[in-house]
Amino acid sequence: MNLRDSIKKNGFVFNKRFGQNFISDTNLLEAIAYDAGINSEDTVVEIGTGGGTLTLALAKKAKKVVSFEIDKNLQPVLADTLAGAENIEVVFRDFMKVSEEEIREFAGGDYKVVANLPYYITTPVIMRLAEKNMSSSITVMVQKEVAERLAAKVGSKDYGAITAQLNLTSSVEITRNVNRNMFFPPPNVDSAVVKITFDKEKQSLDFSRVRRLIKIAFAMRRKTLINNLVSAGINKEKGLSAISKLGFSPDIRGEKLSSEDFVNLEKELYGEIDS
After folding, report:
1. What is the reported pTM?
2. How far apart are the first and last CA of the chain?
3. Sign of the C-alpha dihedral, residues 164, 168, 169, 175?
């Protein structure tokens, strides 16, 4: 059944708390599945089933789709829109409260993540997936401003802690921009599709100390790197020595360092990263 017809039939009311903006354009749905590189051997974990339109587009290409949805009021709508799709499992639970082990059990092994993420939960979801090495790739529809931050170049105004952290283990690209009128109800901002592809070898490394270092470096953007390090309890002389050994000036700021620079800074401060 058509999504709009099902919403009307079931008297579904959009919940602003969950940031619900659904996609109905078939071409866009197919394009997102294409951007994600989904094939018949893949299991996809979707975060936020919504009206099920993206879920269905993914299911046409994937071996299996496990979709997490927090709003149980969507059950009758999804019963209509996903009728007959046998390779879809909808789990009515908050994805952020499901353990990594449970998600892997639902997926039956490795998986790719695809989602039209509600704006309010974008950063927590992406960072959880990245820090826990939970998937081989993440393809998400996010607010355009957030997409630009995720894919920002070192030293640019959009480059920040989340950019540097993602670059530790992945490559990030914006695959397409999406006008707000492609959704219903339309949000107040335009969106973009971002693909994050992880490097398995880098995922095997323990970057926990580097991630902490990145957070420290961006704690106060207007402060120099050394001042942020000192504020976090790192010895000033040791910090300045490490910065100097990397060839940077004492007054450099965190946004001028690439993820590789942070790895090298961590080595100078603490020693080698364990594999």
Report:
1. 0.92
2. 50
3. positive
